[in-house]
Design goal:
Length: 186
């Protein structure tokens, strides 16, 4: 398989805002602490897969209500996919935002998965050298035939460890993130 990585698109923040507004409406009865644009599309100037990544942040006590509200809004709950404190959702292909390809996660406040997303975003926004290194790896991987998405994720692990080290996450936190990003048997 090949992964599509494209040059930065200045409409990505606008697309996020459209998704964010719909999520605010869907979660109107659920206390949430924020809706964050994360992933490479949230970093100005960074080449990325053209997929908007969104983290909905909730307190642990509101997780079930958020999951239920997302289902009512037409999102399919995929579970935590092995990532503690983060629940993944697939958008309906028939919803009014179907033209905006997106990954939506409901994350528990303070979860390492959320801190990982925010740390990567904030560090890449602030550090042009790391941003360029990360882009180079992503583009190199996009030019290869990969067995699956796991190869792409694992292929970025080394540069992401540098990004996370620069972000201030501890070595133990970085090791835990690396373990999640490793393919079984690696």
């Amino acid at each position: 398989m090949r992964v599509t990585v494209v040059p930065y698109d200045p409409t990505w923040p606008e697309r996020f805002e459209v998704v964010r507004a719909a999520l605010v409406e869907a979660l109107a009865d659920v206390p949430h602490l924020g809706i964050e644009h994360v992933g490479s599309t949230s970093v100005p100037g960074l080449a990325a897969k053209p997929v908007i990544d969104v983290d909905v942040v909730v307190a642990a006590g509101h997780l079930d209500a958020a999951i239920e509200a997302m289902a009512v809004a037409g999102y399919e709950h995929l579970g935590d996919l092995g990532v503690e404190g983060r629940h993944a959702f697939r958008a309906s292909t028939e919803d009014e935002l179907a033209a905006i390809t997106r990954n939506v996660y409901v994350c528990v406040e303070g979860a390492l998965s959320l801190r990982n997303h925010l740390a990567v975003r904030d560090t890449l926004r602030a550090d042009p050298e790391l941003r360029a290194a990360y882009a180079a790896v992503k583009l190199q991987l996009a030019g290869q035939e990969l067995a699956d998405m796991g190869d792409y994720i694992e292929g970025k692990s080394e540069v992401l460890q540098r990004v996370l080290a620069a972000s201030g996450l501890t070595e133990a936190e970085r090791d835990a993130i690396l373990a999640v990003n490793r393919k079984p048997g690696s």
